[in-house]
Write a structure and sequence with these properties.
alpha+beta, six-stranded mixed beta sheet, Ribosomal Protein S5, domain 2, 257 residues, 27% strand, single chain
Length: 257
């Protein structure tokens, strides 16, 4: 039996830098959440086809792990992958809430790819794996590199490790699911023209604790917060003073005192 942790992340800040080829570009500080993670396990099983347990509410074709499996097969052409998953099933123990701005689906797929690389001895570099992951989802490269903290830019494919002491974070996720595609579409419709690149110059050089203490404004730190409030106005009723907003939501976070 093989197992790996798929950690959640928060966005300390997230600024939209433009829109190109139908997608938004960004600059963001991603930080791994050490005490919140899903677990991906490969368990012995005689399987007639690729089998995933633990997320039955998601259709197989929509599952990011299944997409990662297909991408790895197509890219490597390695028969060891097919043979391994005739003899093992994938079991997911979910702890990261969905549609919460924590990257759960992307983290699961990235952890799956990292574990397959290990157990099947794939001759593929981490950089190559990250490029492949970016074809599945914008957050996958960060999770594939597995840095505790990183500056992420472009479409999510540029990941630069940021050396800093990990923050102890408290999370609060209301029972509101935020669809990332809807939030980005809302941003494009209502807020894209408001982008001022000069307003966050140098943020990528500041440590996360300084950013949260100095900026101290969830709307200013995260461009998607205002878009999420427009798309999901019920968020305003559950927002708490002094809490920040991760990704496209709906999770709020703050530093533990």
């Amino acid at each position: 039996m093989y197992s790996i942790k798929a950690h959640a992340k928060v966005n300390i800040f997230l600024k939209i830098t433009g829109h190109k080829d139908g997608y938004h570009t960004l600059l963001s500080r991603f930080m791994r959440v050490e005490d919140l993670y899903d677990t991906i396990t490969f368990e012995p099983c005689e399987c007639e086809s690729f089998t995933i347990e633990g997320c039955e509410d998601i259709p197989l074709e929509s599952n990011t792990i299944y997409k990662a499996y297909k991408a790895l097969n197509a890219h490597t052409g390695d028969p060891d992958i097919l043979n391994f998953f005739y003899q093992h099933k994938v079991v997911i123990t979910k702890r990261i809430p969905s549609q919460a701005g924590l990257g759960g689906g992307s983290s699961d797929a990235a952890a799956f790819m990292r574990l397959v690389k290990e157990v099947c001895n794939l001759m593929i570099t981490t950089e190559e794996l990250a490029r492949l992951g970016s074809t599945i989802g914008a957050d996958l490269p960060f999770f594939i590199y597995n840095y505790p903290s990183a500056n992420v830019s472009g479409f999510g494919e540029i990941v630069e490790s940021f050396e800093e002491k990990p923050l102890k974070l408290e999370l609060y996720t209301p029972k509101i699911g935020c669809d990332t595609a809807v939030v980005y579409k809302t941003f494009k419709q209502h807020l894209l023209s408001d982008i001022k690149l000069s307003s966050f110059i140098g943020w990528d050089q500041l440590d996360s604790k300084t950013l949260l203490e100095t900026i101290n404004d969830p709307v200013m730190l995260n461009d998607l917060y205002k878009a999420s409030l427009i798309a999901y106005p019920e968020l305003e009723k559950v927002a708490k003073e002094g809490w920040f907003f991760s990704g496209s939501g709906s999770t709020f976070f703050k530093m533990k005192s």
